[in-house]
Specification:
By secondary structure, the protein is α/β, with parallel strands linked by helices. The chain has 2 domains: about 1-30 and about 80-115 and about 170-255, 3-Layer(aba) Sandwich (Rossmann fold), CATH 3.40.50.1220; about 30-75 and about 120-160, SIR2/SIRT2 'Small Domain'. The chain contains 10 helices and 9 strands. Strands 3-2-1-7-8-9 form a 6-stranded parallel beta sheet. Strands 5-4-6 form a 3-stranded antiparallel beta sheet. Strand 4 (about 120-125) and strand 5 form a beta hairpin. It is globular and about 60 Å long. The structure holds carba-nicotinamide-adenine-dinucleotide (CNA).
Length: about 260
């Protein structure tokens, strides 16, 4: 099936949602974990995001993640982020469920973003309830080579990202499942579908019987055999969808 037919599917769906992973941000220059040039080839990503290790040595997390998470002001949304925001604006997409922690969906203008692996949007103290620091403030401190600390107890603050060994934010997860169950179409984009429970979310769309999933990923995923369509290249697919959106807007203006 062509991308044109995919766009027709998206624009005629009753309830279309997207589940995104690190692959949608590789086009923005942020490496993924398990892709061809993923971080797993270069560094111990699981150690960086391990909660027990963070408690022992938070400086390790901040040093290792600084080029990724604390330089987001230098990263721009990719064509995938931009097109998803546009699809939402046109009323074709109800929500983006993301595993990403790079705030790029928000930067692209998406309004309904469900961050199931948390977000660096704020930092908090593991000891003192109610202490919060914004991403911008923490990023300035980390960029200066220092550590964001609690003003009460001095303990190093933790970003509200879900680390390995932590529970996922329950509210976000249940909202994601609710959207997946309502979806007659879910776009599954740039995710290896290996991290649970995120990887099981498309199954809620499929288990409704009438829901279908479309996968765009340049490596095989465990759900490929259950997808009604699979494409490889996110840049190519979303570049074409962008053109179809432009045509659609033009035709709507002309009252066709
Ligand atoms: P993953 O396991 O690294 O999978 C990403 C997938 O995207 C891989 O299968 C790649 O082959 C594929 N891919 C990469 N670029 C493209 C492309 N241009 N076109 C098509 N496919 C592509 O990442 P997941 O999101 O599945 O794993 C979940 C982890 C990764 C979450 O906990 C994230 O927080 C974590 N992560 C997030 C970011 C980010 O926020 N940008 C970056 C790195 C890791």
């Amino acid at each position: 099936m062509s991308v044109e037919e995919l766009f027709a599917k998206i624009s005629s769906a009753k309830y279309c949602t997207a589940l995104t992973g690190a692959g949608v941000s590789t086009l923005s220059g942020i490496p993924d974990f398990r892709g061809k040039n993923g971080l797993y080839n270069e560094m111990d990503a699981e150690k960086i995001f391990d909660i027990e290790y963070f408690k022992k040595d938070p400086a390790f997390f901040y040093k290792a993640s600084a080029p990724l998470i604390y330089s987001l002001d230098k990263k721009e949304p990719s064509v995938v982020h931009i097109v998803l925001a546009e699809l939402e604006r046109l009323g074709f997409l109800k929500a983006v469920i993301t595993q990403n922690i790079d705030l790029l969906h928000e930067k692209a203008g998406s309004k309904k973003v469900i961050e199931i692996h948390g977000s660096p949007g704020f930092h908090y103290c593991l000891r003192c309830a109610g202490v919060r620091m914004s991403y911008d403030e923490a990023a300035l401190i980390v960029q200066a080579g220092e550590l964001p600390a609690c003003p009460n107890c001095g303990k190093v603050l933790k970003p509200a990202i879900t680390f390995f060994g932590e529970m996922l934010p329950a509210e976000a997860l249940s909202e994601a499942v609710d959207h997946a169950q309502k979806s007659d179409l879910m776009l599954v984009l740039g995710t290896s579908l290996t991290v649970y429970p995120a990887a099981s979310i498309p199954r809620y769309t499929l288990s409704q019987g009438k829901g279908e999933i479309v996968i765009v990923n340049n490596m095989p995923t465990p759900l490929d055999h259950m997808a009604s369509l699979c494409f490889d290249d996110l840049g190519e697919v979303f570049g074409k969808i962008k053109e179809f959106i432009e045509e659609f807007i033009e035709e709507t203006k002309q009252g066709k």
